[in-house]
Amino acid sequence: MQLEILTPEKKIFEGDVSIVTFPGVDGSFQVLDNHAPLISLLQKGVVEFKNSAGSQRVDISGGVVEVLKNKVIVLATGTVA
Question: Domain of 30?
Fold first, then answer.
């Protein structure tokens, strides 16, 4: 599936991934290939994903995620330095 992580300042990541874990406001959750459509609020925490290069992590300060037709778009309010 395709993952995009965007902030108001820049695009953090774009590429194919096999799994993504999110810090949802009601607890963490994972999205796999062919996941059902969803929109969820994200809290401060870590977005972790796996691709052909291995596991990667991005610290975010909150945001929104949309999953639709094997495309995952994260609109993060910012990344944590």
Answer: 2-76
- Does residue 81 form part of some domain? no
Question: Which residues is 46 bridged to in the sheet?
Answer: 59
Task: Check: pTM over 0.90? Answer yes or no.
Answer: yes
Contact by Cβ (8 Å): 78, 8: yes
pLDDT in tens, the chain (81 residues): 999 999 999 999 999 999 999 999 999 999 999 999 999 999 999 999 999 999 999 999 999 999 999 999 999 997 765
Instruction: Give how many domains the chain has, as a whole number.
Output: 1
Least Cα distance to 19 among 61, 66, 52 occurs for: 52
